[in-house]
Amino acid sequence: MFKKFNIKEDVTGHTQVKSSVQRAIRAKILEQYKEGIEGIIDDVMPKKSPLILMKCHEHINLIVMNNEVLFFNHFDGPYFPTLKLLHKYPNMLPRLQVDRGAIKFVMAGANIMCPGLTSKGARMDVSVPADAVVAITAEGKNEILAVGTTKMSTDDIKRINKNIGVETAHYLNDYLWKTVVDI
Amino acid sequence: MDSPDAPSSEHVKPREVPYCGFCSLPPEYCEFGPTLEKCKHWLSRNDKVLYAILYNTLDDQLAAASLGETPEEDKKKAKEAAKIEKQLQKKMQSKVLIKRIERTKRKCVTSVFGLENFDVDLKKAAKLFANKFACGSSVTKNNQGNDEIVVQGDVSDEIFDLILEHWPIVPEDNIDLIEDKKKGK
């Protein structure tokens, strides 16, 4: 999603949203992440701070607060937390671990293939349904490497062990990572 | 959500994650960036403890890993590193021109050119100048089609100081002051 992205060219406009819209976004995020975020939502998105919605090309929305991108989504899709946010609160999302060999490709923007999630260095300790937002960590690393949506459930990943397992939305060192928002 | 009985133990504090000052990745991922050597250098100066943890064990691994890496990949990496280096050098060489342009005999404007090479938001900078010097200041396109900031009034020396103070990444030697006198009628 952010293989090519330039904040100057690809943002069509940014607005401070109405408080009702802000509440709606907040409710949607809460519903989406439930336990993962309940304890921290007030820290992540204080109710009173102004929330800025940046509309970008290809229906990508960035949710910005205090000059920090917190979430992004595509069209009406699920909200993904950015990696900077995830590094602060790593327990927000279920985590899957890829093996060491996959890191290089993930950081070049590749989707995560099933074998990368089932091989020796990889771990899938949680069971996740298809189309869920997950964080990707890596063998031997503490920090989160990427965020994406599962294309099939973890059980299927184990069983089929072919094709794309997790579709990468945002990864370390992509253009969203490098973007500095300054409004 | 405002329930006062929420146990405080549930309150999760944000983790502080250090980021590499060179490539902005968490240091443990530096090895996958194109600028490992620079990152190592930065980390060894800024966080000795982490450096020791990461690279003492890592060096062995890396040695093993690089054996498996094809020369083609090595070349690719080197190319990328060179590209980044080049960009950085270009950035460091680019000049900022502060030009005093005479309008009439005793009135003039100051134009600032080349700030955008240092990732300065020109609109913000113009606003800052306007606030600071209490005068008109705007971003305009000059006849080459490049953006520059035009400040009304002769404030070149002040702008020089202000740029140094406000954007420390701009090296002092790269700022040039020029006077542009209109030829007398």
From TrEMBL, chain A:
Residues 94-173 form the PUA domain. Gene3D superfamilies: 3.10.400.20. PROSITE patterns: PUA (PS50890). SUPFAM superfamilies: PUA domain-like. It is found in: Cytoplasm. One of its GO terms (biological process) is formation of translation preinitiation complex. Keywords: Cytoplasm. GO terms for cellular component: cytoplasm. One of its GO terms (molecular function) is RNA binding. Belongs to the TMA20 family. Involved in translation. This is Translation machinery-associated protein 20.
TrEMBL record, chain B:
It is found in: Cytoplasm. The gene is TMA22. Keywords: Cytoplasm, Ribonucleoprotein, Ribosomal protein. InterPro entries: DENR/SUI1_TIF, DENR_C, DENR_eukaryotes, DENR_N, SUI1, SUI1_dom_sf. PANTHER family: DENSITY-REGULATED PROTEIN, DENSITY-REGULATED PROTEIN HOMOLOG. Interacts with the 40S ribosomal subunit. Gene3D superfamilies: SUI1-like domain. Belongs to the DENR family. GO terms for molecular function: mRNA binding; translation initiation factor activity. The SUI1 domain may be involved in RNA binding. Residues 96-167 form the SUI1 domain. GO terms for cellular component: cytoplasm; ribonucleoprotein complex; ribosome. It comes from Linnemannia exigua. The keyword Transmembrane helix does not apply. The keyword Electron transport does not apply. This is Translation machinery-associated protein 22. It holds the Pfam family SUI1. One of its GO terms (biological process) is formation of translation preinitiation complex. Signal peptide: none annotated.
